[in-house]
Amino acid sequence: MAVADFSQIRRNEHLPARIAAQIGREISEGRIAPGHKLPTEHLLAKTFGVSRSVIREAIAQLRNEGLVETRQGVGAFATEIDRRQSLRIEQDDLADRDSFRSLFQLRLALEVEAAALAAVHHTLPDLAKLDEALAQMNGAEKWTDQGIVADLAFHRFVASATRNEYFLQFITFIAERTHLAINAARAAAVLEEIVEVTIAEHVAIRDAIATRDPAEAKEAMRRHLYGAASRLGLKLEML
Amino acid sequence: MAVADFSQIRRNEHLPARIAAQIGREISEGRIAPGHKLPTEHLLAKTFGVSRSVIREAIAQLRNEGLVETRQGVGAFATEIDRRQSLRIEQDDLADRDSFRSLFQLRLALEVEAAALAAVHHTLPDLAKLDEALAQMNGAEKWTDQGIVADLAFHRFVASATRNEYFLQFITFIAERTHLAINAARAAAVLEEIVEVTIAEHVAIRDAIATRDPAEAKEAMRRHLYGAASRLGLKLEML
DNA sequence: TCTTGTACGGTTGTCTGATAACCTTATATG
DNA sequence: CATATAAGGTTATCAGACAACCGTACAAGA
């Protein structure tokens, strides 16, 4: 684990990223209202005590996120809300237990529906992939990340079997975020329990999908995610 | 309508955005594999025929998306998939009917669950906001965007009443994307039908939430979104 | 008085060149 | 063989200049 610790040392964030984060916060917390103009690049450079090109790189980042739009000769403006082009999940936010639970609750909604869609749309190669992931879970040694990798793969294959690209993107993204957050919390004891107990739950999901039973697939996925949340000490709502 | 047409003229995209899009495509289409190194800034500047600072701004954008990570003195690398920090929905993709239906199906899963959570967690001010949005729907003149604005507000308030920040962010984002796509398709005739027919459906959602009945809230939201999809000519799956 | 054209000042977009900081590899030394 | 140093290459930041664009003010003409 010592080597892993060193690899987790965080490189300092570059100036443009830090400045973009600050300006982004000003905008998302309402201190710069939508449609309003940002200070000029020259003034921002003086204010932050950096060169203008650092400011330009920061604004390029914000522009890419859709938080800011620039007009040559005029200035940079905070956009109206509906111009935002991406959804971000800040990993640091997930260190907060309530935020983590909130994301897990949202993941539940998506994955339960995905299980039902997979029950309808899966193909034989999809089933083979699920079986492969199950086999990797069975072979996973304790105290390693291998069980988690197999778990992520299982969920990714379920999402892929929906034949819906957005379910695949969203579920893969959210599942990875939640697992990264679990890793960061270093709940090593929880990892072991997850690996052992959830194999049966994953098998139940696989079997419900294979028998093309959407209601049972939903139920199996629900049981699995509630179980996972419970093992993580999270209290989800079953509605 | 003529004035509106003129306001839609599109500004040329700046060089860094265009270059970031090209490099991003190379990465997402697998021609630059995860973990592999990009050409140096100097070489990219020569290849694209631009200055190095344009390249740096492009890379800053890609870095912000998590597609690329840079190491000073070494180079820029395409990231492993799990380092991607945001979910994007490209508006152009939603011009494709199947993609639009896929996103709508995902929206269904989220909004149905949100209605149930709102039934449990809403407050009196939440109900007042829902009523306000309903009043705006009633007052909306045909052939304007006002009905859509009220509809978006209604869904945003439902999501807010879940008391779950991620439901709020995700639902707001997806609802706006779908409405922008509808606008872009200029289905003016459909707009009128949406505004008139769906008020009753929204009222049913509001009432189920107010009576704290999660199952009924789910059912009401389901009927609303299936109805909306049907009016848009989309065939969703009810599972 | 109203409309059109021009000038001016300010701001963003891009370019050029330089140095700092970092990383990797090769070579020298004990 | 292990450690230290040098060299070369690359990114990160800085500074300055000019191009392109925009908004406003003012002048000229109808």
Identify the notable features of this structure and list them briefly:
3 strands, disordered N terminus, DNA-binding, 5% strand, 239 residues, mainly alpha, homodimer
What fraction, in percent, of the residue positions of chain A are helical?
55-70%
Report the radius of gyration of chain A as a whole number of Å.
22 Å
CATH class of the largest domain in chain A: Mainly Alpha
Number of helices of chain A: 10
> Which pair has the most extensive contact?
A-B, 53 and 53 residues
Number of domains of chain A: 2
User: How are helices and strands ordered from N to C of chain A?
Assistant: HHHHEEEHHHHHH
Question: Main sheet of chain A, how many strands, which sense, barrel?
Answer: 2 strands, antiparallel
Return the structural class of chain A: mainly alpha
Strand tally of chain A is 3
Query: Proportion of β residues of chain A?
Result: under 5%
Please characterize this protein's 3D structure.
Two copies of one chain form a homodimer. With 239 residues, chain A is mainly α. Chain A has two domains: 15-83, Winged helix-like DNA-binding domain superfamily/Winged helix DNA-binding domain (Arc Repressor Mutant, subunit A), CATH 1.10.10.10; 91-231, Four Helix Bundle (Hemerythrin (Met), subunit A), CATH 1.20.120. Helices cover 67% and strands 5% of the residues of chain A. Chain A contains ten helices and three strands; from the N terminus they run ααααβββαααααα. Chain A has helices at residues 2-7, 15-28, 41-48, 52-65, 97-121, 124-139, 146-161, 165-185, 188-210, 214-231; strands at 68-71, 75-78, 86-88. The first copy, chain A, has a two-stranded antiparallel sheet with strand order 1-2. In chain A, strand 1 and strand 2 (75-78) form a beta hairpin. In chain A, helix 7 packs parallel to helix 9. Mean pLDDT of chain A is 81; it is low at 1-10. The interface between A and B is large, with 53 and 53 residues. Strand 3 (86-88) of chain A pairs antiparallel with strand 3 (86-88) of chain B, so a sheet runs across the interface. The first copy, chain A, binds a DNA duplex (30 and 30 nucleotides) through helix 4.
